Fold F420-0:gamma-glutamyl ligase.
Amino acid sequence: MSEPAASLKGYLIRGLPIIKEGDDIPTLIQSLFEIEDGDVICLASTIVAKSEGRMRHLDDYQPSSHAIEAARDLGKDPRFVQAVFEESSDILIERPFLLTVTHFGHIGVNAGIDQSNVGDEMILLLPIDPCSSAQRLRQALGRDCAVIITDTCGRPFRNGVAGVAVGWSGIAALRDWRGELDIHGRALSITQEAIADEIAAAANLLMGEAGDLTPAVVFRGLKYPRSGDDLFRAKEKDIIRSRLNR
């Protein structure tokens, strides 16, 4: 079991240009900041998606009758709704908003499609497979480090959004405390800590939102497990999802 860090430092990587398709993010990062073994590099999903060519024009989508009907009820562009449908493997809630499951297992509003910081009539999709993207980026950095791809997501029963991990490599998404003893000597039987999400949330505090976005953060001094279970709960074990699908 990994011990908590004695001290943890977070560094903003300033000076990144506006990312476009084909840009080499690892090379850009290394030109601005020296990555060390053990670092955790957090990257906003937006820059990863842009580098991978995930920008789309709304005219790329031909709305189905289902999308047109849903768009009418939602007050949204039918082309946008069609994009959400195409980026989703399942629709959990269709009204008053679209809550969907992406093809890689993430659950979020509008399949995580972003309309901010892109041109008119443009949308930005999430990376096709963020964990594969994180692995590719980590290997290109050439260090024994971890990479987390972050996005912001709403939470059930709470207002506001928080940073979450949608992709990761070189780090376990969960720290398993089961079998460890509490302060009274009782063995823990349930606790699994979502450390990738916790790190993503901390990164989001540093990154900022809107026009102040700095889309890359490095954490140094964090001790973290290298292997563990997935963050995305299996459909058959997800009680809330089973109720939504009724």
